[in-house]
Specification:
The chain is mainly alpha-helical. α1 packs antiparallel against α2, α1 runs parallel beside α3 and α6 runs antiparallel to α7. The protein is globular, with a radius of gyration of 18 Å. The longest helix has 30 residues.
Length: 179
């Protein structure tokens, strides 16, 4: 493999993580964005991956991107767009399997004013089951980020320490804040 090909691959991994790290919960955690690839961030809360980590990855990505030809940049953009689409579809499928509803039915329910909590309750899914699902999804995302970025143990632990609060913030959004 040439140096340029290695650079393109490395940049691809950085882009995938930067763009994908927060889309793990693109299935409706924040507002009415189910299926639109939006990340969950409510109010002043940041997502699972701390802002400073995302900014560091973006800076690395930008530095690598500057060394590519226009043709390489366009090829990478196309590749990353396809990877993001696959990633979103996988997440939508996981949520559909969990809820027993298609993406379209979930979208329609959200658009009609139902909260995710309402939808889950109607499907016989408890808040505890939702918490388990979200926690599993968050741990899988951390595993993926750790692998793609070769994170140090401390960085991985930072992400794992954020999971409970991150999941609780989604549950609060879905089911209403608990005292």
């Amino acid at each position: 493999m040439t140096k340029t090909q290695n650079t393109v691959i490395a940049l691809g991994l950085l882009l995938a993580t930067t763009l994908g790290a927060q889309s793990a919960f693109a299935f409706g955690g924040g507002g009415g964005h189910f299926g639109e690839g939006k990340s969950f961030r409510g109010g002043d809360r940041e997502g699972l991956v701390p802002t400073e980590m995302r900014e560091e990855w973006r800076a690395e990505k930008k530095a690598l991107f500057e060394n590519l030809t226009e043709e390489e940049k366009e090829a990478l953009r196309t590749e990353m767009k396809e990877k993001r689409q696959v990633h979103r579809e996988e997440k939508r499928a996981a949520v559909s399997e969990f809820t027993g509803l298609s993406t379209e039915l979930l979208r329609e329910a959200k658009q009609s004013g139902k909260s995710m909590g309402d939808i889950l309750t109607e499907q016989g899914i408890s808040q505890t089951e939702a918490e388990q699902f979200l926690t599993e999804q968050a741990h899988a995302k951390v595993d993926s980020v750790v692998e793609r970025h070769s994170l140090e143990v401390e960085e991985e632990q930072t992400l794992r320490n954020r999971i409970a609060d991150f999941v609780q913030s989604i549950l609060d959004k879905w089911f209403g804040a608990t005292a």
